[in-house]
Write a structure and sequence with these properties.
The protein is built from seven helices and nine strands. With 253 residues, it is an alpha+beta fold. It folds into two domains: 108 residues, Orthogonal Bundle (434 Repressor (Amino-terminal Domain)); 135 residues, Umud Fragment, subunit A. A nine-stranded mixed sheet has the order 2-1-3-4-9-5-6-7-8. The relative contact order is 0.12.
């Protein structure tokens, strides 16, 4: 019942044109999203995590076959053939969650299979710094599989995830000029050693920041750039805009 509710809440498009393989894949993604990790879901279904990953990944490498589909339905307590059918709801139809505990109902209603991340027309400087733009403009959105996001990223909240790019060579070879960067805008202070997007003296930077007993050290992974020590009484000169949490090395816009 809960699996069907989750899937109904997620479906907002007409799946009548989808083939069986696509329907099974979408249903399997909905079921997998009920678990913290794909490994837990695979264990509950009695199969290997790699098998599930090959089917539900953003670029799937295999289809969900008949025998495995029936095995997963049995393990999940679903009727035979459930994975083969699109479970869309009629326009205007609502799902009654009143019989569920409030916390579980909230988790189900907030479920999403795809995360849309705003890409801003911002290139953080991995060099001497750049002037902030007069206006932060969203130029497009990136769609990421929600299961992949939950499994691979550590973040404060989904809505705090943004996409920018980096320019310069001071963070090479870790981050290269033009790499796409996912940032967590919910991080606005240096609580741990990490790579941050920040303002210093009115200039935008992307650098590694290390916290010391008597202040901060700004570090470039490229050894040609010197470290910058910021004493504790000058930490206010640094305004953390976000933490860099993921990047695609070598890709550029």
């Amino acid at each position: 019942m809960i699996a069907e509710i989750i899937y109904q809440l997620d479906k907002s498009r007409d799946d009548s044109g989808m083939d069986t393989n696509s329907i099974r894949r979408e249903n399997l993604r909905a079921l997998a999203a009920r678990y913290a990790t794909q490994a837990e879901f695979a264990a509950a279904c009695g199969t290997a995590p790699s098998v599930i990953s090959l089917i539900v990944s953003p670029n799937p490498k295999r289809n969900l076959g008949h025998q495995l589909a029936r095995k997963i339905e049995s393990a999940q307590g679903l009727p035979m053939g459930w994975l083969d059918s699109a479970h869309s709801k009629e326009p205007g139809e609502t799902v009654d969650l009143s019989f569920l505990p409030a916390a579980l109902a909230q988790k189900i209603t907030s479920y999403r299979a795809v995360v849309e991340i705003e890409r801003f027309d911002i290139a953080g400087s991995m060099g001497p710094g750049t002037e902030p733009p007069d206006m932060n403009m969203v130029v497009e959105h990136m769609s990421l599989d929600a299961g992949w996001v939950r499994q691979n990223l550590v973040y404060t909240a989904i809505e705090n995830l943004k996409l920018i790019s980096g320019r310069g060579d001071s963070m090479a070879p870790t981050i290269r000029s033009g790499d796409a960067l996912i940032v967590d805008a919910g991080v606005t202070s240096v609580e741990s050693d990490a790579i941050y997007f920040f303002l210093m003296r009115g200039q935008q930077h992307i650098k590694r920041i290390q916290r010391n007993l008597d202040g901060l050290t700004i570090i470039s992974d490229n050894g040609q750039y010197r470290e910058i020590d910021v004493p504790a009484d000058r930490e206010g000169d640094i305004q953390v805009l976000a933490q860099i949490i993921y990047w695609w090395t070598g890709r550029s816009y």
